[in-house]
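Human: Here is a favour to ask of a fellow structure person. Comparing notes only helps if you start from a blank page. Give me a protein, with the fold worked out from its sequence. Please set it down just below, with no commentary around it:

Assistant:
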Amino acid sequence: MRWTLPNILTLSRICLTPVIALLPFIDGYEPKVIALVIFIAAAVSDVVDGYLARRYHQVSELGQLLDPIADKLLLFATLIPIFWITRHPTILVDYRIPWWGSLPVWVALILIGREV
């Protein structure tokens, strides 16, 4: 296996997935903002690693295998906490979507079904 920058970026996205998934469950506003910033950085790194792999001819079988897995993990790491938090409000904070309420089950199932 060759360690290329695109593969390292993909592996870093996979490693950041549990952080993104767990931060929203910590009380307070700051962990949720940090999770958002990490998510945006991971999304940008997805674009960057694809660009670098094609531009510098570093497309590898490992990258082709790991990139879709990283994308799916990132979706699950954001969707599941959003679903849980909007369904189970805390005593102090209600995270339901103002015009929609909690995230509907059918929306979560469609997004998960599409990825699987």
User: Anything to note?
Assistant: The helical segments are 5-22, 30-55, 61-87, 105-115. The mean pLDDT is 89. The CA atoms of residues 26 and 81 lie 11 Å apart.
